[in-house]
Amino acid sequence: MNSVFSKALKLQNSIVAKYVMRQVLMLLAAVFIVIGLVIFGNQLVLVIKESIEEGIPVVDLLPLVGFNMIRDVPLILSLSLFLAIILAISKLYKDSEAIVMNSLGVGDKHFMVLIQPVVLFIFIFILFLTTVAVPWSKQQRSMIMDRSENASEFSFIKEGEFQEFKNGELVFYASKVKNIKNSAKQDMEEIFIYAESSGNPIITLASQAQKYTDASSKSVYLRLKDGVRYHGFPSDKNKKILNFDQYDLQIIDGSRQRSANVLTKIESKPTLDILFSSNNKEIAEWQWRLSQPISVLILSLFGILLGKSSPRGGKNLGVLTGILVFIIYNNALLVAKSSLERGDLSPIVGLWSVHLLALLVIVIFYAYRHGKLSQLISKPF
Questions:
Q1: Number of Cβ atoms within 10 Å of the Cβ of 48
Q2: Taking CA 288 as the corner, what is the angle to CA 72 and CA 117, rounded to the nearest 5 degrees?
Q3: Which one, of 136, 10, 25, 19, lies nearest residue 71 by Cα?
Q4: What stretch of H or E contains 189?
C-alpha cells in the first residue's frame, strides 16, 4: 500500500494527474449546473407559492430563495462530485485511456489518490457550509418567517372571504372583521364554519366570534358566541343540533408549532454551541453536519470503482448505480439521525456506523472487482 501511495504521489504533478483532475472538474461543473437548475428552480416556485399562501412580503422572497440555496448546496455538490468521478473514470475506460494507464501500473488505487486534491477542496468547502453557512442561513430564514407570521397575524382572518385552515379541513367565513389595536385578537360577526369529522360534515353558525392566542399553549382559537352547530347538513334527517352560548374552536395547534420551532432552533444553532451537548437532538444535528462532508470522501472512493466499466457494460449503468448508492447512503444517514434524536441509537454508534458500513462495502466491492474476495473472506481477523 505504501508503494502504491508513493507512486501516486509521484504522479500527482504529472500530465496524467492533471488530465484526470481536469476531467473531474469539467464534469463536476456541468453536473452541478444541471442539478442546481432543477432543484433551485423548484425551490423558487415553492418559495413563491409559500409567500402567496402565508403572505410573505415580496422584499423577503430573494433572501428566502438564497437561504434555501445555501441549505441545499452541500447535498447537490456532494452528488455532483460523486457523479462527476463516475463519469470521468467511465470516460477514461470508454476511450481506452484508462486501459493504457492500467498497463503502465496506474490502477484504481492510484486514481483514488490522484483525484484527492479536488475531493479535499470540496470536502473543506462542504464542511464550511454545513458547520457555518447552513446553520446561519437557517437562522436568518427562521427570522424572516417569524417576522412574516407576526406581521400577518392581525390580518389572519379576512373580512368577507372564505378561508381554509388546517390544510383545507376547515372553511371559515366572517362578514365583518375588526382588528383590535396592539393585540393579536380579532372581533368578528356573522360567522360560518364548515368542517368534517370522520367523513361527516359539521356546520357552525355564530353571531359573534373572537380570535385569540392562548398564552400557555400558544394555540390559536376562535371563541364563538350565540351560535348553533349542525352535525350533518341542516336538511339531513339524522342531523344533530347543538345550541351554544360560547364555544372555543382550535384553529392552530400550539404543540405542533413548538415542536417544529425546537427542531428549527437546533438546526440554526452554531456548531460550537452543540458540539459538546448531551441532548440527543443536538448530538444528532452536529453528527449530521460532519457526516455530509465525510460522505464526500467515502463516495469519491466508491465513484472510482463504479466508474470502471467494461465494453459489455451498459453505457449509463455506473451513473444509475451511483444514484441508487447515493440515495441509499443519504437515507441511511437520515434514518440513523432520526433514531439518534429519539434515543433509539447510542451517540457512540450514531451516524458513524453508516460511514463504517459504507467503507466495508467499498472494501468488499474492491476485493470483488480485483478477484481478491475469497482471499479477503479467508483472511483471519
A1: 15
A2: 70
A3: 136
A4: strand 186-197
